[in-house]
Amino acid sequence: KQWYQRRVRAMRILGPKVSNCFFLLSCWGTIMLLLLGIFFQTKSVILLKDIGYDEDRYESAALTCFIAGGIYLVIGVITYWQKVVNDRYSALEPETTTIVF
Amino acid sequence: MMVNSPCFTQCSEADMSKLLRSEDMSLIQIFLSQEASYNCIRELGELGAVQFSDLNEGVNAFSRNYVSEIRRSEEMERRLRFFAGEIEREKLPVPADYTVPPAPNPKDLIDLEATLEQLEGETRQINANQEALLRNFYELKELKHVLNSASAFFQEGAAIQQEGLKERLTPKYDEEVAAQVSRHLSFLCGVINRAKIPVFERVLWRASRGKALLRHMEIEEMIKDPVTEEDIPKSTFIVYFQGEQLKMRVKKICEGLGATTYPCKEDWEERRQTEAEVDKRLQELTSILSETKNHRFRMLNTVVSSINSWIIQVRKVKAIWYTMNKFKKTETGLLHAEGWCPKLHLNDVDRALKRGAQVAGSEVAPILNTVTTRRTPPTYHRTNKLTKGYQAIIDAYGVATYQEINPAIFAIITFPFLFGIMFGDIGHGCIMFLAGLYFCLKENYFLKRLKSYEEIFLMLFHGRYLIMMNGLFAMYAGFLYNDIFSLSLNIFGSGWQISNFTQYENSTGDIDPGKTYGLDPATDDWTGKPYPFGIDPFWNLAENKLTFINSYKMKLAVILGLAQMTFGLVISLFNYKFKGKTLDVSCTFIPQMIFLQCLIGYLVFMIFFKWFMCDPSTPQPSLLICLINMFLKFGSPIEPEMHLYDMQLYVQSALVVISVLCIPWMFGAKPLVQHLYPRVRQASYAPLPQSYEQFENDGEEEEEEEEHGFMDMMVHQGIETIEFTLGCISNTASYLRLWALSLAHAELSEVLWTMIIGNGLAIDINKYINPIFLVITFLFWAVATVVILIIMEGLSAFLHALRLHWVEFQNKFYEGEGRVFAPFSFERMLNGADDD
Fold this sequence. Notes:
The structure holds 2 protein chains of 2 kinds. Chain A has helices at about 1-10, 15-40, 60-90, and one strand at about 95. By secondary structure, chain A is an all-alpha fold. Helices cover about 60% and strands about 5% of the residues of chain B. The interface of A and B includes residues 64 and 67 of A.
């Protein structure tokens, strides 16, 4: 069991808080940037302001959004893996509490 | 906090929770035999249905019946604290065990007491042994060091002796005399704290008048103090002196400065022998010490697994004794208890008492009596995990008087609705909803571990259903305002178009991006097809967006305000009818309602009229100025700018007259009627909130009522009238915060979007670098959104929605002078309710 514990420990790069936090963020980022990219591709009028009233920039903006969404997807996968490792690590140690009066 | 004990759901008569008013309560008396009392109270504690009154109120805490039992349980608690301290010292991990053990029966209690006593005795003994062994160990270590440094000292000493003698015996240096003198030089060696060496030297110098000599050497190894377990730097020393007197003095100085002296022989052989012995002893001691340590460790490990369970049991036992101290001993040897109990749990209490008596093996069955009384019972709202949060926020302002309508039942919907109006964004609402949903779905996990969280997180957790509902309603309001992260959704197709492009073209025929445009329904831009649900998405791009939206939201706020205030008044009608106060209905409710409708109701009517009937091509009257002129320019004909509809003059004059007539009606009718018809007084008088223990005084009530004369009534009614009439205006204006907060939210959201993500998208360097910028800016935007818009604005909207309920809604009908039903329940006590 010791070597298993050490292997799990070695895979831990990010702590539980950081990995959970960034996992949530990247979930949000993927979904939102994907939708934003779709809205740029359908040339929605609302987003004109953000691309400086220049209709030609719609496609490049859409591409930017999709790539950024892809980057967030990758970050999401990495943090999800870290989450799983952290869960495994904390499951190894029995849960302890403090003595409360 | 109200607790829904699991017992209730299995054995109650299963009538639905009547959250509208407090449950019916009855005052009960219980007569218990002494042997059965502990077990019966134990059962009642697990049930959590009775709030006991203290029948021995005047009695000192030290002279109550069960003081010795409380002392015993406190002794057990002290022992448990001792164990907790020892466990913490050894830093042993405590395994998490979330089961709550029941309170022990008397036999188990005695066993527990004995176990704790025995364990404590053993632990203390082991500790004492360990301390003594450690002390011995360190002394031996010090002796070893002294022996080691003795050789160095003696060599040095011999040299100094020679020199010193040479100085003293000049001019004649006689070897024989020198040898004689050297034989008289004695020494003392030992160990002293390094910090005290300078003091030691000085005192020695003074005491011996320069005739004693001190040499010292540092010990590299740090010696531990056996009691405090601190490392103390020490040094070995040796003092040379002449004569017996000096010897006594040096000895005393050593004692005084805490230096320990060790006997040391001059002979090198003897010293080596002693050193060998010391080494052997040290080895023995090391092994004994490690065995003692292991024994202690094993002892503490047996304690660690059950200590939390013991603590809970002892707390329950103490609570039982404290409750039993509230009972009175009758002449026949029974215990007499009194308390409040909801009517629907009377059977459960009866069954619990019988169970307790049976377990105790007592033949005397406990007697349960219901007593009729005129005292006001505590208020008990039976809540479940959803309604508990809403009841808590309403109770925070004031607990409902017994049998008064409970505003919490309406707040379940109105509170999230008003929150949503102020928060109004689909995206932020969605995030809030998901956060609340997460906590609600994983509540069992968190509920078990409640004690290990900080207070702020606990507050968030207890409000999880509120957060979820708030998020849901915020999403709904977001669809109404058509606002998702400051963008609008075009689901149905806009009702606006740009009919004339030429006004926006510059000289070359291209669209000039610098020109802004406003939407005007009078022009051809308006196609005449309204957007089916929510605000048209085109408004997001218009220049006059805020002008329109502000007007719309302000009117919405006033409409909602009137709706909630009218609803509050209607609730007051139901309250009066329930208590049979017909005088209040005719003298308070009716004039208040008429007054409110004449003013604000008319304003809302004008709002709707203007929305539906007015022609957008001509400028229309400002409704507020209309309302003000209704009063200021009463009687004079309507100016053409203020003309809304025909007959306006007559309608408005009539309304003003009626509302002004309502004021003396509110003010004077009730005292007049009560003065002229005294019989009506009793039914209309609110029951005075009485103190807890008033058995008699029913006769005194009637005397007090007669003393409240006409003038007092007038003053009371006068205050209420002024409060209501001024409140009509001020409370309506207060509802404008619905507009203000949603405006702030929308503007903040827009700023965050354009400044952060807008800039992120505007950077157009390179196809490959752009996404990285976008990733970073999205990160900043997300963090800013969560922190500023969701947490800060969410808290703000929560607070303001709450204030609208507490003040503007509840001051139309709420008395809020009840006290909360605080039953004797182990669950409540363990979760931190602080009663006694």
